[in-house]
Amino acid sequence: MSKIIEGLYYSESHEYVRVDGECGYIGITDFAQHELGNVVYVDMPEVDDEVTAGEEFGAVESVKAASDLVSPVSGTVIEVNEALEDEPGLINKDAFENWIIKVQLSDMSELENLMDAAAYKDMIGE
Amino acid sequence: MAEEIKVTCLHDKHVAQGALMTPFAGFDMPIQYCDITTEHNAVRQNVGVFDVSHMGEVHITGPQAEKFVNYIFTNDIAGAPVGKVFYGMMLYPDGGTVDDLLVYKMGENDMFLVINAANIDKDVAWINEQAQKFDVTVDNQSDHYAQLAIQGPNGEKAMKDVLGIDGSDLTFYTFKLVNYDGEEIIVSRTGYTGEDGFEVYATPAVIVKMWDMLMAAGVQPCGLGCRDTLRFEAGLPLYGDELTAEISPIMATLGMFCKLDKEGGFIGCEACAQQKAEGSAKKLVGLELKDKAIPRHGYEVLDGENVVGYITTGYRGISVDKSLAFALVDRAVGALGNELSIRIRKKVFPATVVKKRFYTPNYKK
Lengths: 126, 365
Known about the structure:
The complex is a heterodimer of chains A (126) and B (365).
Chain A: E1 9-10, E2 15-20, E3 23-28, H1 30-36, E4 39-43, E5 50-51, E6 56-62, E7 66-70, E8 75-80, H2 83-86, H3 90-93, E9 101-105, H4 117-123
Antiparallel strand pairs in A: 1-2, 2-3, 3-9, 4-6, 5-8, 6-7, 8-9
Chain B: H1 11-16, E1 20-24, E2 27-32, H2 36-45, E3 48-51, E4 56-61, H3 65-72, E5 85-91, E6 97-107, E7 110-115, H4 120-131, E8 137-140, E9 146-151, H5 155-161, E10 175-180, E11 183-188, E12 197-202, H6 204-216, E13 220-222, H7 224-233, H8 269-278, E14 282-289, E15 300-303, E16 306-316, E17 323-330, E18 339-344, E19 347-354
Helix pairs in contact in B: 2-7
């Protein structure tokens, strides 16, 4: 059974946003990391890159396959989780602790299009 | 209506063991039991067992069996001793590859061909078509045989201790027939991992029994996921990626398995000789990245701004801690040491042309 955290926003493509003021930490869910298996590489954008809700901003890769990262929200990247460059497997250890990018949100209303923990739990059937 | 998916005799065991299953070459096959890295390392460092019962087996017998096989096969089996195994390809007249395969010389008039699962129907049709001018019998025995690959430095020990089969007298690419449970089975010192190991061909009943014994002894079950990472690091081609109807063995730099001057030649020999003499337009190379980004099948290879080829297979190596790939590129840019680049999603990463064998195999010569 996958871990799901209350208070986060979830996308259908299994990313989450943890909102902190006007910023959002974006990562993949515990369910997603489990489905993917051992993460061996995370392709991340650079600081100051723009991300757009519903569009790809990078990828998480297992030995076997690359899985696109789709941004749940729009904004400007203000930090990337550099620890993942040396140790991408941190995502498998704790996907919610090890966010991928921190974004300055440009449109808070986009959060309304995302799921809460209960809805995401229903979606993944747990 | 969709074609019905086939299963091997071990399918229920894989499912019961919780393997991740996926369709491959028309069969529902295990990709991994625990994770690819663990299974890969078991084969490199100890021993692992693969269910490769999906592979095809074709028996060719008759007074012209050797002559016929030598005519459709790029390697040269003429006059070889019984008990030897050969690797090579069957080619179209233009040099494109029908399949890559193993030929076991079972007797002077008895050749056993092991072909890729995805190509069984195509290969058997091709072989039958070519066989019309020869005094041979072609018997597709793919449904009769199941197969295990027991691979790794402790493969010989596992064969002996768990299965009671002494393989110590076999050198790389030789085989013997063994009487096992009242059945004559084939045991060869072959594999597709870059490690020492064995392949066993027998009826499903025997293979299921052997699998149970290996599991009870704690031998690591290995899926097709690590089969691909292992063969890739060892520089071995996969039909469909590095060899296709459009990619000849000369382009794939497997010319050492094409005996262009053997008596009587072989189908595709002239095309290969021409490609070798003139230099084929495309060539398969190894690429090594300095970055950790992972090149995948189909990604573009660039020389400056120009697209000069594509990735056929790529991984973050497991035994070799680098991002690596095979790529089919224009011959002009394929020299060792040449600097190219690979487009990976939105970014472009530099890559150096290197030898395709990323990991030095440990075979028993």
